[in-house]
Every structure is written in structure tokens, then in C-alpha cells.
């Protein structure tokens, strides 16, 4: 039941000129080590890619903060090389500093090296104060760049050297979203995380509560220790509680009846920090509310987070495109409009599911509105059934998909299929559904 949240890994003129790594190696020590470059200049990205590959490293590139957060939500990088300006004409380093602060807030152990213009000493100082481990000034010599990266990685705070290329287990808890609600949520997590008070994370299922709980733990002094998760619906919950220590993440306390809530109070060791995931704290008896919800961190429904659905959809496209081997898959503007205006059942998880399905069905890597329509799972079922050229199978598959899509709500499934409820019931009986 114990689970470790964190792996203990752990435009310029003439920026690149010369030798590979100071150790020139391409051996096991560095060959598994991946570095993230955040830079909007493809020429720089190509050149750094070559230099790092010659030194035995791998490079992932993000063209700006949005893509960077998405990549950082997927894996932990041994080091991050961050340019300080992204928009055309911007030179004050503010964009880079904001990105740096966000990355460090999400993952205090992130190893950041910033790239500044030759005259950017003020920016370099601000970046170091904000948590960068080092800076390089343009133009740089590749040998210096790699030496600084290697020194920064070696100075990692964790026990295992990132430069040793330890494989990534779990990505940092990165919350995608730029809405006011998400900015407030991040600020609250940063305030609450370090205090050993118990926290109740509230909100609709699928809205990201478990991710927020991880993020709170990541901001705590115990971040390097594993949390223990409990599903309070399980029969053996009381024995499990008694055997554990550290930080507890409790699921479904709000589903316990009054007697079980009192038993939970009796069984919770006094010294543990509890992070509870509940729909609302209303069903909690006052004493349990005091024990579990000293502070409430509310996760807003997706509909109340202006602009976040599109950022999340792009994030899920990147993940699914990578997972299903479909690089370059993207949402059309019209599809992003659908993402923005749809009320997603099951919140962020529902959106993620719709996007994954669309990525799979997008033959040409283009996700247009039709692929995002709620009935696209029905379409997918038809495609699958068509392969067998059996109309009976196709009809059954469509009905099954529509029922799944609408969580067995016959009225909604019938409407999606263009049938009356009675007609759907008759077919369900025929197919034994
Ligand atoms: N802001 C976010 N940024 C990135 N991913 C997110 C965000 N919110 C949710 N997700 C992803 O959506 C999915 C559902 O989130 P999560 O499991 O945290 O929801 P939940 O509210 O805990 O729901 P449940 O308790 O029903 O599992 C997960 O894959 C999670 O990583």
C-alpha cells in the first residue's frame, strides 16, 4: 500500500563552437540522462541537441512555458536549461523568471540552469535568487555549457545523483492551467503544503483532487518520504491505518456513516498528517472535520476555470500522441472551441478520455470537432465492428458504446443513438445487455 511519490533522482549570435562534454563520454553514466531545453528558437535547440548528444545526453525541447509544464508533468528531468525570453521583442527576462518560479514551486529539487543574453547579469542574479543553480551567457562555448550542467546536476540536493542517470519513476505534481482559480489554488498549496496541518481537498470527482493532494505533499518538508494512501471503503481499513505512519492520503471519508467516522477518529494516529480527498466536508461529523479539515483546499470545477480546458486538452494530446506513437497530432481551432464550450462529464478526466480517443481516431494527426463529439466513442465502436462486416455486431457494439458513454442512462444513450427509449430497451433485451 505504501507508495513513493517521488523518485530520489532524483537568440543569439554564435552560441556554440566547440568540444563536447568535458569528459567527452557517451557511456552509461550520462546516456540515460535527459535534459529539458525550454527555448523557442529551433536553431538553438538543434545545436544544443547535437552538443548534448555528443556528450552522451538526451535532449527534450519545449518551445515555451506551456509546452514545458506539459513535459514536466510527464517526467522528471535531470536538468532544465531555460531561456529567459520567449515573446518577440521581449528582453527583460520576466517570462523566464515567471517560468522558473513556477517550476521550482512545483518541484523544489528541479535542477535549473538559465541562458541569458551577454548583458543579462541582472536577470542572471534574479534567476539565481529564484532557485536556478547556474547560468550561462550567450554566446557560450559548448564545453562550458556542459560543464555547468554537469556541475549543477552533481549539486543535486537528493541522495542519488541526477547525473548518474537514475530512471524516472514519477513526474512532479504539475497542475496545468492559467486561470485565476488555478493561480489561487497554486498559491494556497504553497502556503498550506509546508505546514503540518491536515488538509481536505474538496471538489468534483475527476477535477484533479488527487493531483492537488500530491502537490500539497510535494510542498511539504516530508516531500521525499512516501505517502500512504487509504481507500476508506475497504474492509481492512482499520488494520491498515494502525500499521502506517507519515502522511496519509485518505479517500472517501465523506462516504462513511457516523459510526465509521467515529471509528476513523479513534484509529487515526495523532501524529500523522492527513490529506483527505472528499467531494465536500459537509457529511463529516464536527470532530472529524476538525481532525481532517483544518484547512480546506477547494478544486474548482473545470467550467469555472476560464481557458484551462484548452490548455489541458493540448497537454493530453501531447501525452496521448507520445503514448500512441502519433507525433505532431494537434487540435484544430474549431476543435479547441468545442473543448472550451463543452461541459465535460467527469471533469478533467472526462476531457482527457475524449482527447485520448480523438488522438487514436485521428488518422492524419488532425483532431477536428467531429472527433471530439460525445458520440465519437460510438463511431469508434462502429469502426471496430465494421472490421468484422457483421451488422449485428455493429449494432450491439454501438449500443454498448452509447451505454458506456452515458453511464447506462438509457434516456441519454437512446438520444445519442437516435432511438426511442422503448426501441433501445428492446434491442438491449435482444443482445442481452
Ligand atoms: N490541472 C491538471 N493538470 C494536469 N492534469 C490534471 C489536472 N487535473 C486533473 N488532471 C488529470 O486528470 C485525471 C483526474 O485527476 P484526479 O485523479 O486527480 O481527479 P480526482 O478529483 O482525484 O478524481 P477521483 O477521486 O475520482 O480519482 C488525472 O489523470 C490527473 O492527472
Automatic annotation (TrEMBL):
<dbReference type="InterPro" id="IPR002197">
    <property type="entry name" value="HTH_Fis"/>
</dbReference>
<dbReference type="GO" id="GO:0005524">
    <property type="term" value="F:ATP binding"/>
</dbReference>
<dbReference type="InterPro" id="IPR002078">
    <property type="entry name" value="Sigma_54_int"/>
</dbReference>
<dbReference type="InterPro" id="IPR058031">
    <property type="entry name" value="AAA_lid_NorR"/>
</dbReference>
<dbReference type="Pfam" id="PF00072">
    <property type="entry name" value="Response_reg"/>
</dbReference>
<dbReference type="InterPro" id="IPR011006">
    <property type="entry name" value="CheY-like_superfamily"/>
</dbReference>
<feature type="region of interest" description="Disordered">
    <location>
        <begin position="1"/>
        <end position="30"/>
    </location>
</feature>
<dbReference type="InterPro" id="IPR001789">
    <property type="entry name" value="Sig_transdc_resp-reg_receiver"/>
</dbReference>
<dbReference type="Pfam" id="PF02954">
    <property type="entry name" value="HTH_8"/>
</dbReference>
<keyword id="KW-0067">ATP-binding</keyword>
<dbReference type="Pfam" id="PF00158">
    <property type="entry name" value="Sigma54_activat"/>
</dbReference>
<keyword id="KW-0547">Nucleotide-binding</keyword>
<dbReference type="GO" id="GO:0043565">
    <property type="term" value="F:sequence-specific DNA binding"/>
</dbReference>
<dbReference type="InterPro" id="IPR027417">
    <property type="entry name" value="P-loop_NTPase"/>
</dbReference>
<dbReference type="InterPro" id="IPR009057">
    <property type="entry name" value="Homeodomain-like_sf"/>
</dbReference>
<feature type="modified residue" description="4-aspartylphosphate">
    <location>
        <position position="83"/>
    </location>
</feature>
<dbReference type="GO" id="GO:0000160">
    <property type="term" value="P:phosphorelay signal transduction system"/>
</dbReference>
<keyword id="KW-0804">Transcription</keyword>
<keyword id="KW-0902">Two-component regulatory system</keyword>
<keyword id="KW-0597">Phosphoprotein</keyword>
<dbReference type="Pfam" id="PF25601">
    <property type="entry name" value="AAA_lid_14"/>
</dbReference>
<dbReference type="GO" id="GO:0006355">
    <property type="term" value="P:regulation of DNA-templated transcription"/>
</dbReference>
<feature type="compositionally biased region" description="Basic and acidic residues">
    <location>
        <begin position="1"/>
        <end position="16"/>
    </location>
</feature>
<keyword id="KW-0805">Transcription regulation</keyword>
<feature type="domain" description="Response regulatory">
    <location>
        <begin position="34"/>
        <end position="153"/>
    </location>
</feature>
<protein>
    <submittedName>
        <fullName>Sigma-54-dependent Fis family transcriptional regulator</fullName>
    </submittedName>
</protein>
<feature type="domain" description="Sigma-54 factor interaction">
    <location>
        <begin position="175"/>
        <end position="360"/>
    </location>
</feature>
